[in-house]
Design brief:
Structural class: mainly alpha
Mean pLDDT: 95
Number of helices: 20
Oligomer: single chain
Order of helices and strands: HHHHHHHEEHEHEHHEHHEHHHHHHH
Shape: elongated
Number of strands: 6
Bound molecules: arginine
Length: about 475
């Protein structure tokens, strides 16, 4: 093997005991600046809070703290205007910013790292970033719920087939189906709210792992960064990533819900179903088949869970079995979470757009609702209620009638009374009332049921809860 030249001289930030710089491959595997530059705003916020606290506690002079605070703002604007000289030999965002700060403000910059370590620094940066993503997910989910609610309001009493096993089961209402997703996304939202609440403790000041001998004020930095309180155990503070795992778990469940509606959209927008029309904004054409309007956005949304759950499994696997406290393994957390968060936010935005733009085909839904013997349960219930049959017997009579209708190639309401009476003599003409889908859905008045009155009551509750 040929000898590789040293990449550079020893690291200026920690190279005191090093005579030579890292091997090029070492630098490639070690450096995280390529992706953790996304934490720049959080890193600067954390450092500003830290510097202000160091001054307030007399650890740093006011003059130095002011220079640091100002210098960090200069760094911020350099990064945001694309002028910041990112350097891979400085490993990560923390060292890049600190090094540049020192170039700008001189020796004061070298005092910033008093009483902290990159271990608590990255922990606080990452928490701030994930906390912000929770807020974005919460906002995105609220918008998505509003889009579903608007659909529910428009079609509270439109009938459509309800499915189990993707086989026609019983007629339901469009509003009811839309509200099912409002419920799911509301639970998703509350999962992000819960995760946010739990992660809202500040690890800054845990230092490398043991805390510090400087008289720092962790309550002050916690408050400055919008945390509820400082974390209570320094070892836990630098080694915990369960806040990120909770975010990923909530994201996975949410992406799973997105994938289910995405799948329904794929099915519903097909020429065979025609339940909904997706707007041109959310479909693509085929380069060869001119008739096609493909639901690409829905298909991609269906797939996003693959990435997001993949990230979740990856981070679990990274964290599994790590002895306390920080190990470099944990640097591998960020790309997973970044990718999952990007996928989720994009997915929420795309779904919100699609749901807002989709048009339900009311007539097709109604026709489909009435086919496939969808009111067979209503017939069985009628036999129980009106003729006093035991349910099992009613089920059997109804099954026989369904088989008869099927053999004749018609639906249940198309059978004549005479034909029905050959199966059970007691059946009367008023049975036809329950064979209509409108009556069927109207009769499902149990709490949470599909009856339009029930649906409207739930819509009213959601309209109140959703700003
Ligand atoms: N880039 C590192 C990470 O993302 C920062 C923490 C480095 N700490 C250390 N002891 N080397 O985890």
């Amino acid at each position: 093997m040929t000898e590789r030249p040293d990449t550079n001289s020893a690291n200026q930030m920690w190279g005191g005991r090093f005579a030579a710089g890292p091997d090029a491959i070492m630098q490639a595997i070690n450096a995280s600046i390529g992706f953790d530059k996304r934490l720049y705003a959080q890193d600067i916020a954390g450092s500003r809070a830290h510097a202000a606290m160091l001054a307030a506690t007399g650890i740093l002079s006011n003059k130095d703290a002011e220079a640091i605070g100002e210098g960090l703002l200069t760094v911020l604007s350099e990064i945001e205007t694309g002028k910041f000289p990112f350097r891979v030999e400085l490993e990560d965002i923390h060292l890049n910013i600190e090094s540049r700060l020192t170039e700008i403000v001189g020796d004061a910059g070298k005092r910033l790292h008093t009483g902290r370590s990159r271990n608590d620094q990255v922990a606080v940066d990452f928490r701030l970033w994930v906390r912000d993503q929770c807020d974005q997910a919460i906002a995105g989910l609220t918008g998505l719920m509003q889009a579903f609610l608007a659909q529910a309001e428009a079609g509270a009493d439109w009938v459509m087939p309800g499915f189990t096993h993707l086989q026609t089961a019983q007629p339901v209402t469009w509003g009811h189906h839309m509200l099912a997703y409002v419920e799911m996304f509301a639970r998703d939202r509350s999962r992000f709210e819960d995760a946010r609440r739990r992660m809202n403790e500040c690890p800054l000041g845990a230092a490398a792992l043991a805390g510090t001998s400087f008289p720092i004020d962790r309550h002050m930095t916690a408050q400055a960064l919008g945390f509820d309180r400082p974390t209570a155990n320094s070892l836990d503070s630098v080694s915990d990533r369960d806040f990120a795992l909770e975010f990923l778990a909530a994201s996975s469940i949410c992406a799973m819900h997105l994938s289910r509606f995405a799948e329904e959209l794929v099915i519903w927008s097909s020429a065979q179903f025609r339940f909904v029309r997706l707007s041109d904004k959310w479909t693509t054409g085929s380069s060869i088949m001119p008739q096609k309007k493909n639901p690409d956005a829905a298909e991609l949304l269906r797939a996003k869970l693959g990435r997001i759950l993949g990230a979740t499994v990856a981070l679990f696997t990274i964290m599994k079995g790590l002895a306390l406290t920080y190990s470099k393994d944990m640097q591998e957390d960020k790309e997973q979470v970044f990718d999952a968060a990007d996928s989720l936010m994009l997915g929420l935005a795309a779904m919100t757009g699609m749901v807002g733009d989709m048009t339900a085909n009311r007539e097709v839904l109604a026709t489909a609702a009435a086919s496939g013997f969808s009111t067979a349960t209503d017939l069985a219930d009628w036999l129980v209620r009106e003729l006093g049959l035991p349910f099992r017997e009613a089920h059997h009579v109804t099954g026989t009638l369904v088989a008869m209708a099927e053999a004749k190639g018609v639906d249940l309401p198309d059978l004549t009374l005479d034909q029905m009476q050959t199966v059970h003599a007691g059946i009367r003409a008023d049975v036809f009332a329950v064979l209509g889908v409108e009556n069927s859905v109207r009769s499902r008045t149990s709490y949470g049921g599909t009856a339009p009155d029930q649906v409207r009551a739930q819509i009213a509750l959601w309209a109140e809860r959703l700003p």
